[in-house]
Amino acid sequence: MSIQRSRSEMLYAEALEHIVGGVNSPSRSFKAVGGGAPVFMKRGSGAHFWDVDGNRYIDYLCAYGPIITGHAHPHITAAIVQAAENGTLYGTPTELEIELARKLKTAIPSMDKVRFVNSGTEAVMTTIRVARAYTKRSKIIKFAGCYHGHSDLVLVAAGSGPSTLGIPDSAGVPKSIASEVITVPFNDLASLQQALDHWGKDIAAVMVEPIVGNFGMVMPEPGFLEGLCKMTREAGALVIYDEVISAFRFHYGSAQTYAAFPDKQAIEPDLTALGKIIGGGLPIGAYGGRKEVMAQVAPLGPAYQAGTMAGNPASISAGIACLEVLQTPGVYERMEALTIQLADALQQSANHYGIPLTINRIRGSFSAHFCDHPVTNYEEAQDTDGEQFAQFFRLMLDQGICLAPSKYEAWFLTTAHTEQDIIETITAADNSFKTMRAG
Ligand code: PMP
């Protein structure tokens, strides 16, 4: 069974003439899943979207994370329309920005002060600058396979998109910059201690996705974040959490306030980077942290960071509206219940057909790795069957189920997915595993 996508193919050919690689973000290309035209989408509503050929898909890509309330949620749409009617940009402060900042601070108390930017990349990039300004040191420790956007310093051993395309260490990053980054394996405190012992006085910050979303979904092992924070502080460096994916994904708050970590103080970072969900589907990023650290930022301090579009009323209004939806009692519990139903059925079905599958589920999201071992770090995520994933991805797409075209990316549910969607997805997955076994 294969659905017809001739208009996507035609548009892709045309896009290739004008847009580099035919896509405006490399992770949208189908290079890692056999190549060819990606699906050109035209419209979305709730948990579904429709392509230019009129095919309907159940969406588990969810724009790589931001779309947690489904497409065109009426509350968010109304907020955007109202913002647009009042004018899209003033270049002055607005009251709306205070409201979103207050909401973020209440949910993530380690952020005494916040600054809005336009993307996760900008947010992370600036936390590094601020940490360097504060500590007057230059080196950064990051964890292999974590992805922190596309600024120079963090395109070293970068997961998700760069890994999918086989370029975890990007060309164009000068050696002098790459040499400022030390990479250690996730969930490995001994390696972190070794790096800190060796480079200690030069380390400005240790940066981590506290719950990883970029080589699948991976929880830190018990004690990992606590140990990371303690060792980093002892070395006189700052802890930066990249919560661009994890904030508001698992509960109304972020990884650092998640119930899985009982000793909140022991895992509190100095700086946090945010993005994705906090903009309700419009471009946004934010960073924040301890008052004295954030005092480095201009106009208070000497670390410069600015943005013509930063804090624009449309993004901020969409963000406020999205967080309001997420404050509805029971939304995370409902997403989790549906995700358990789906993940358990996928596992059972794969087992039934003898296809090795490791599922890492965290509340309303999960990753499914084609392998017969646990996935707790980047190396283990790399050691999974990309060809099997590609086949599964194609089979699912042809049955109207849209996943991210990469074995490193997560499946995301939204508040709009229904039990009917889950049942359809389970049936499609069962068909897919059956075909894979036969092939
Ligand atoms: N940090 C993390 C953890 C991310 O997952 C991403 C994007 N996938 C980014 C930073 C970069 O965000 P953006 O694409 O908005 O620049």
Automatic annotation (TrEMBL):
CDD domains given for it? Answer: OAT_like
Q: In which pathway does it act?
A: Porphyrin-containing compound metabolism; protoporphyrin-IX biosynthesis; 5-aminolevulinate from L-glutamyl-tRNA(Glu): step 2/2
| Cell compartment(s), UniProt | Cytoplasm
What are the recorded Gene Ontology BP terms? protoporphyrinogen IX biosynthetic process
Q: What Gene3D superfamilies does the database record attribute to this sequence?
A: Aspartate Aminotransferase, domain 1, Type I PLP-dependent aspartate aminotransferase-like (Major domain)
Q: Which GO terms describe its cellular component?
A: cytoplasm
Keywords, sorted A to Z: Cytoplasm, Isomerase, Porphyrin biosynthesis, Pyridoxal phosphate
Matches recorded under SUPFAM superfamilies: PLP-dependent transferases
Annotated EC: 5.4.3.8
Among the Pfam families in the record, one is Aminotran_3
Q: Which residues carry this modification: N6-(pyridoxal phosphate)lysine?
A: 276
NCBIfam families (UniProt xref): hemL, PRK00062.1, PRK12389.1
Subunit arrangement?
A: Homodimer.
Protein name (Swiss-Prot/TrEMBL): Glutamate-1-semialdehyde 2,1-aminomutase
Species of origin:
Paenibacillus baekrokdamisoli
